[in-house]
Amino acid sequence: MKTGNRMMFRAGRAAAAAALAVFMLTGCFFGKTPETRYYTLDYVPAPPPARLERGPYPFTVRLRETTIAEAYRRSQIVYRQSAYQMQFYSYHLWAVDPERMIGDLLFKHLRAARLFENVTRVAESATPDFQLTSDVRAIEEYDSPDRWYAHLAVEYQLIDEKTGQVLWKQLYDLRAPVPQQEPVFVVRELAALSSIMHDRMVDELEPVLQEAQKRRAGESDAARGR
User: Fold this and answer.
1) Rounded to the nearest 5°, which phi and psi values hold at 128?
2) Dihedral angle at the C-alpha atoms of 46, 176, 80, 77, nearest 10 degrees?
3) Lowest-confidence pick of 49-58, 61-70, 128-137, 214-223
4) Cβ proximity of 113 and 202 under 8 Å
């Protein structure tokens, strides 16, 4: 073999050996890429029988698109270990935008509770009586030294469509301990917290709608000259 060819052969073997070494080191130190997992929020509304027996109030409510704080507007599930630092899972992701899921659960819950005669999410030919807004302030995993928590904070407002007046406003900021330190259990608790929020909302909106119904009846009587 000529000298030039021999040198090229040796150089090629050295390059191949170096590549194999890099491959082996990559496998040893970094291992297999973790599996990406996707999560959704869900629960089955269970309104109390007394609420269902009372039936709906004669109003239509339109749900506005749910908004969300910028830090949570992402597919990665957020986790934090302090109030000043946020981190994001690379392989634990929301299957649907979190604000969309909260809006879906709100819609499902209000329909199941039969609080309003009609619950809609789109602009219709008939003007609704109220609009209901929802703004997600936090949806995250919070890690303390000894245990994990699910943290959900959402603000809701009921607005009179005719006057623009805010008739009811509430910020629910809830936490729940997680039984096991895995993201799937955080998601389960977040769904449970959403159910608690919406149950409380229905309870708090009922007297507001009762008052609105009385006010409407008084206006009708006045219009008829009673």
Assistant:
1) -70, 165
2) -20
3) 214-223
4) yes
pTM of this prediction?
0.83
What region does 221 belong to: left with phi over 0, alpha with psi -120 to 50, or beta? alpha
Burial of 75 (0-12, 13-18, 19+ CB in 10 A): middle
Distance CA 192, CA 42 (A): 8
Q: Are 109 and 195 in contact (CB under 8 A)?
A: yes
**Cβ atoms of residues 69 and 136 within 8 Å:** yes
d(CA 217, CA 205): 18
Q: What is the pLDDT of residues 137-178, one digit of tens each?
A: 999 999 988 899 999 999 999 999 999 999 999 999 999 999
Nearest to 70 by CA among 123, 156, 138, 161: 138
End-to-end Cα, the chain, rounded Å: 116
Both structure tokens of 199: 């149950």
Asked if residues 120 and 131 have their Cβ atoms less than 8 Å apart, the reply is no
